[in-house]
Design brief:
Pfam families: JmjC (PF02373), zf-4CXXC_R1 (PF10497)
GO biological process, one term: regulation of transcription by RNA polymerase II
Mean pLDDT: 78
GO molecular function, one term: histone H3K9 demethylase activity
GO cellular component, one term: chromatin
Shape: globular
Strand content: 5-15%
Family: Belongs to the JARID1 histone demethylase family.
Low-confidence stretches: 1-27, 259-280, 284-292, 336-340, 476-487, 647-653
Helix content: 25-40%
């Protein structure tokens, strides 16, 4: 890889070519200037036949390795939307004429997926309603009313806002208790846990706990009275009408792809588990990620198993993720201090945060970076950009990442029909699901360095794509054999992913050996062995875990261009064997909602000051909105396709042929049959009107048939 010594050269040369000879007078560029470097002193400069931009041969060779001169003549990098010069990477230019990949579904697909959403999320919705009904029963007994006679006051909270419980920091779904004086809010789970009096009342906590300590907390609802319960009834009707033969659990015990030899040959070998059907991980090539593979993916997702899709970048435009391109995209060209713009990074050796300029960081990404005592620094830029959208900060790289995403029904950030995080109303969406970029220095384990991501849970389901790798220059002291090992394409990132079923044993092992695994003196308390993100299991630790508890993880080597899917609730750790640039996106599959709810229950039990205490995912709200939208879509579709026939009373009666009358009668009988099967999806008064209208029309048809028959007989 070319040295980053010239990181500032292109920016400097660009500025020089635009420098002023005097106040306000720009130097005029020659028409032969290269669009990339703005120079015209190169031997070969070729022009594009589409836009007339010109690129010199050195820039084509260095920055666009997939193109040759003839390709540029036919359509230059700018026409292909992959130009990575400083001007084209500006946010304004980068957003221009670049379509965001969309996902369009036919009506039949929307119906099927909507049925799947309702069917899979129905158990969770039942649980929510049951919890709320328990609190309703307490309130009804207190007021001396039957639960059917209880009417709750609707709160002034906006239905689209995320409201957190002031006690456990979990999201408030619908029914909750609130203080009319200080607006302290308590979720129904906390109500059931801390109920103070036999009559069912709960007093507002003292000021030290966020309340006022005076009034009783009143039971309220965010939505109109019984709206959530009525939604459950409608959802049950939809689920009963839908087919379940295509559901992941109905496919059978065997993996749908287990008999496909080509996929087995490409599979990444795994640790064998007694309850699995083989010692390999589902690993289809990106070229066969088609409709049939979606079922295969869903089968593994339903079982909570990771999936690897290799070389997903091969189907994208080829936009560069090289360090210098990233540096150009991150810096502010018109800012004279662009070389000193800072990143806040994690020093993996000391686990401390430090500040470093973009130029220094990317230079160390390839060449290595050392501290004052000559020790190699291992730095990591995590979850970047913080508090901002990758689409706004690096728009071209964002679009390239979206184009690489497999299984877009689940992973598309905005249009994924089976991505439940897209169901929260846009006006209130405060979820930070990504995509986020991580840039990590990495060297091989043999060198004794530690470029690690500790054992942790992802926020939800996650897909991580390795977009770029680089072997750090190791210097003359490193043996040739070790340096060669690190340049192998296999050496990207090493993942260990644990099964959901093994989590209790894993947590027990981490608690038991916490002192041996890591110096945890910096922790005030070990609240949770996984949520603390404090441990990494070495090869020796994994051997001990297997010997003591019979637990071993899936171990995956992520290569350049590989997409690794980690289901919600699977603890995982990562070791970076080379410098890596990866982009991760969190999504919520319907199959994983139950596991996300389990994780949210763990978060609410963490100490109040814990950094992961807050319910950031809002999975209950997500579930409610997803079910509501799916049910509404199915009901609307049914209503539009089971319509009462229009009868115009002003039309003069004419003699209708018997053949047409028989056809019309058959059509009306079909509509009656459809109403009997799916009429429960329609509101009762609408169904009654439709049935009466069809019956009246059938009576008229019978009269016409009789008239036609009598007229035929008399003649």
């Amino acid at each position: 890889m070319s040295s980053l010594r010239s990181l500032s050269n292109e920016g400097t040369s660009s500025a020089e070519n635009m420098q002023t000879r005097g106040p306000g007078v720009k130097r005029k560029r020659s028409e032969k200037n290269c669009h990339q470097c703005h120079k015209n002193d190169k031997e070969t400069v070729v022009g594009c036949t589409k836009c007339k931009k010109k690129y010199c041969n050195p820039c084509i060779t260095r920055w666009y390795t997939t193109l040759d001169i003839l390709d540029v003549v036919e359509a230059c990098p700018a026409c292909r939307n992959i130009c990575n010069c400083g001007a084209c990477l500006k946010p304004g230019m980068a957003n221009k004429n670049l379509p965001i990949p969309d996902l369009k579904l036919g009506t039949a697909e929307k119906i099927k997926h909507s049925h799947d959403i309702v069917r899979v999320l129905l158990p969770s919705l039942k649980k929510f309603v049951a919890e709320e009904n328990m609190e309703r029963e307490h309130e009804a007994r207190f007021q001396g009313l039957p639960i059917t006679g209880l009417h709750l006051v609707k709160s002034n909270l906006n239905n689209n806002d995320c409201i957190l419980c002031d006690s456990c920091k979990s999201s408030v779904l619908d029914v909750h208790r609130s203080c009319l004086n200080c607006l302290f809010k308590l979720c129904v789970t906390c109500c059931l846990e801390i109920r103070q009096h036999d009559d069912g009342t709960i007093v507002c906590p003292p000021e030290s706990l966020g309340g006022c300590g005076h009034q009783n907390l009143e039971l309220m609802s965010r939505y109109p009275n019984n709206w959530v319960s009525e939604l459950l009834i409608r959802a049950e009707a939809v689920a009963n009408a839908g087919k379940v033969t295509d559901s992941p659990e109905a496919v059978g015990v065997a993996c749908p792809g287990s008999s496909q030899g080509s996929e087995v040959e490409n599979a990444t070998l795994l640790a064998h588990h007694e309850d699995s059907n083989g010692n390999y991980l589902h690993c289809p090539t990106s070229l066969v990620v088609v409709k049939d593979d979606l079922k295969h993916f869903q089968w593994h997702l339903h079982r909570g198993e990771p999936v690897v899709v290799p070389d997903v970048v091969s189907g994208a435009t080829g936009f560069s993720w090289e360090p210098m391109v990233m540096w150009r995209a991150c810096r502010k060209p018109r800012n004279p201090d662009h070389l000193t713009k800072d990143f806040t990074v994690l020093n993996c050796s000391s686990l401390s945060k430090e500040t470093i300029s973009i130029h220094q960081f990317y230079n160390g990404y390839v060449k290595g970076l050392y501290d004052g005592e000559g020790r190699r620094k291992i730095l990591k830029l995590e979850d970047w950009p913080p508090g901002e959208s990758l689409h706004e900060e690096l728009p071209r790289h964002y679009l390239e990442f979206v184009r690489c995403l497999p299984f877009m029904l689940y992973t598309h950030p905005h249009a994924g029909h089976l991505n439940m995080s897209t169901r929260i109303p846009t006006v209130s969406r405060k979820l930070d699901m990504g995509p986020k970029m991580s840039i990590t220095y990495g060297v091989g384990q043999e060198l004794g360095s530690s470029s690690l991501t500790m054992i942790h849970y992802a926020l939800s389901d996650r897909v991580d794509i390795l977009m770029h790798t680089a072997a750090i220059s190791l210097g003359p002291s490193t043996s040739t054999s070790k340096a060669a090992e690190l340049k192998e394409p296999e050496c990207g990132a090493l993942w260990d992913i644990f099964k959901r079923q093994d989590v209790p044993k894993l947590e027990e092992y981490l608690r038991k050996h916490a002192g041996e695994l890591k110096d945890i003196s910096h922790l005030h308390q070990l609240a949770h062995p996984v949520h603390e993100r404090a441990f990494y299991l070495t090869l020796a630790d994994k051997r001990n875990l297997k010997e003591e508890y019979g637990v071993e993880p899936w171990t995956i080597v992520q290569k350049l261009g590989d997409a690794v899917f980690v289901p919600a609730g699977c603890p995982h750790q990562i070791r970076y064997l080379q410098s890596c640039t990866s982009v991760a996106f969190n999504f919520v599959a319907p199959e994983s909602v139950g596991e996300c709810i389990r994780l949210s229950a763990e978060y609410r039990r963490l100490p109040q000051n814990h950094r992961y205490k807050e319910d950031k995912l809002q999975v209950k709200r997500m579930t409610l909105h997803a079910v509501s939208q799916a049910v509404e879509f199915l009901e609307t579709f049914t209503l539009n396709h089971v319509k009462a026939p229009h009868v115009d009373s002003d039309v003069q009666e004419t003699c209708i042929p018997l053949r047409d009358l028989m056809f019309m009668k058959q059509e009306m009988e079909t509509k009656i049959s459809t109403l009997q099967k799916q009429g429960h999806l329609v509101q009762p008064h609408i169904r009654a009107y439709m049935e009466k209208s069809i019956q009246n029309f059938l009576v008229r048809i019978d009269k016409e048939m009789l008239k036609n028959f009598v007229g035929t007989s008399s003649s």
